[in-house]
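A reminder before we start the practical. When you read a complex entry, don't treat the lines as separate problems. The point of joint prediction is that each chain is placed relative to the others, so the output describes one connected object in space. Small molecules and nucleic acid strands, if listed, are placed in the same frame. In the example below there are four entries. Take a minute to note the order of the lines before looking further.
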Amino acid sequence: MKKVSGSKTVKVSEARERLEQDILTAAKRLFAQRGFGGVSLDHIAREVGASKQNLLYYFPSKEELYRRVLHGVLDVWLSYMDALSQRQDDPEQALREYIAGKLRFSREHPDDSRVYANEVVSGAPIFSDEIAERVIPALQADVAIFNRWAEQGLCRPVDGRHLMILLWASTQVYADWASQISLVLGKKKLGAEDFSAAESLIVDMVLRTVLVTSPTTLTK
Amino acid sequence: MKKVSGSKTVKVSEARERLEQDILTAAKRLFAQRGFGGVSLDHIAREVGASKQNLLYYFPSKEELYRRVLHGVLDVWLSYMDALSQRQDDPEQALREYIAGKLRFSREHPDDSRVYANEVVSGAPIFSDEIAERVIPALQADVAIFNRWAEQGLCRPVDGRHLMILLWASTQVYADWASQISLVLGKKKLGAEDFSAAESLIVDMVLRTVLVTSPTTLTK
DNA sequence: GTCTATATTCAGATAGAC
DNA sequence: GTCTATCTGAATATAGAC
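Here is the predicted structure of the whole assembly.
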């Protein structure tokens, strides 16, 4: 459809895709906030100025819409966590970039993070297959890279699996728990300075724990 | 009612309290798994072998039931996080006990942790007042204790607020993300050995980061 | 593609008999 | 306290006109 050259067909198709995207975006925000069961099609439809019948023209069912949202979320999630494999020769730099990337994800895509969190907290009833097939291999690849560093004597031999768990936990919390963190920090919304304070601390802790040699720059 | 000495009244009252507790427990498990919007009164009622009308005799509405569940969850949550204030003279021991306590909470009360997580991820629409009144002061007290240690030179001057955030994130993740962590560790259910591995790593990282003097026992 | 109309099921909640 | 019956609204989903 996209490649049809008749200008009218293209226009219609573009409009269609725009609405489809709008629906996905609105659905993502609402699912992030209230979970699958807490959102109605009517609610999503009103958000994009359409009717729920119209919405069911684009997506065959609510669950299918949710799957589509989750699928997109996973794409984004995974795209932010390939830093370890990119700098396989330099643990310090790789870890720094990994932490920075995951925090950037929390900052730039909080709704994606929350949809994912909602699904995992619920035991991933709908998406366990895709998580097992796409997320777990990626995580295990990171663990493997870390373990290789340890074998090569580039890192202290800490448990790579638990280290990775700690890394997502401490970075994603800035998206998923933003409401409570705001209260603790005494501000309405988290800002760039909060994310960089978080980054400093996490990097500091991780490098102190895993590096054999003294890292290049740490707080004194 | 509880103090009435007539045996019949006591019995009835006991039965009533038992059912009320059963409802609260079942509701907690279901809310933990599917969030407020994902659970119906019918669902909860079936779980305890009662009718939903009967359930509404004990609790005036679904939201009120949810509030009661959340209130109980908060009691438990807070009871596991007063370790810092208990050992104000000894940062190392206090931090060790705090981490151990929070991990014990994740292990012993995963549903409580998940109900709380669900509520916070959703932006705490129903419970923000109680969180602001009960949780935040407790957290700020911990931050204050930590900052005092830093002033006294007992700890390095890291940001106490972000340190506390990292501490709940890295401990609660073992309850809230259990389904995904199980997949990474390649086992059906998390066991004692997984929690102690987590504890070792977290304690190791925190002590390396905040202590001025060398801690008593760390991995080499 | 979007609209009106509607089928159907299920939700939370209430009333009243026992 | 628990039951049957019922109200009311909302939810997902479908059918058919335009």
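Discuss with your neighbour: DSSP finds eleven helices and no strands in chain A. What might explain this?
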